[in-house]
Amino acid sequence: RIWKIAASVALMIGIGAMSLHYINRKAASAGTISFHTIAAVNHIVKVKLQDGTLVWINNGSSLRYPENFSEKSREVYLEGEAFFDVAHQHKPFIIRSGKMVTQVLGTSFNVKAFAADNISTVSVLSGKVGVIVAGTEQKQVVFLTRNQELAFNKQNNVVNKITSIDATQAVDWIANKIKFRNTPFAQAMSKLEDAYGVQIGYA
Predict the structure, then answer these.
(1) How far apart are CA 174 and CA 153, in angstroms?
(2) Given 37, 139, 147, 182, which is the most exposed site by the fewest CB atoms within 10 A?
(3) Rounded distance between C-alpha atoms, residue 55 and residue 85, angstroms
């Protein structure tokens, strides 16, 4: 009985330590595949996947991924925003984020797809990325290269390809930097809310 009590105390201490780091890790079994979910709360989480891919998960976002990728593809699920530095392999790396499906072999890019935002984006820093959005008139894959961005408006189901951006600005959040340039006030407030996990009231 004493050992049972000690084990319970150790378990509680372990749970407390995880909460202290604001990382929520869960494992769920889907057939023979084990999945992990990492949620970033009040800070940025960096994770290295089984294939060597590095992912920075922004505050308020979560990433669900298998413990081991299949022989045919590498598939993950994103809610919110993350920067991917994908290890190059022959099998595609696929990110599912709401209606957007982003596919690459090896490159670096940022995906922003918060459920509460009207606009979802994919911004490419290097390599080539293919994106398709379900339920829109754009049925074909939109290919993006360095300093190009796809913007999907969820309100009117419109997809726009922007061919000239500074993609490094899309990942300023990794260094805890926030920059505004000709940004509408409401959009700036929304970005601050995402960055600091707060609600800002204004009139």
Answers:
(1) 24
(2) 182
(3) 6
Q: What pTM, to 2 d.p., does this model score? A: 0.75
- Residue 160 belongs to what H/E stretch? strand 158-162
The owner of tokens 């995402």 is: 194
Q: Residue 129 CB: number of other CB atoms within 10 A?
A: 29
pLDDT band, residue 180 (cuts 50/70/90): confident
Tokens of 35: 């999945």
Give CA torsion, residues 53, 57, 61, 67, to 10 deg: 30
In contact, 108 and 87? CB cutoff 8 Å: no
Q: What are phi and psi of 16, to 5 degrees?
A: -60, -40
| pLDDT higher than 90, residue 88 | yes
User: For 105-116, how does the pLDDT look when each residue is reduced to its tens digit (9 = 90+)?
Assistant: 899 999 999 998
Cα(152)–Cα(91) distance, integer angstroms: 26
The secondary structure of residue 177, as a DSSP letter, is -
CA distance 55 to 48: 6
Question: In this structure, how many other beta carbons lie within 10 angstroms of the beta carbon of residue 177?
Answer: 10
Which distant-in-sequence residues (6+ apart) come within 8 Å of 19 by Cβ?
none
- List all residues 6 or more positions away from 15 whose beta carbon is below 8 Å from its beta carbon: none
147-164: string of b/e by CB count within 10 Å (b at 16+)? bbbbbbebeeeebeeeee
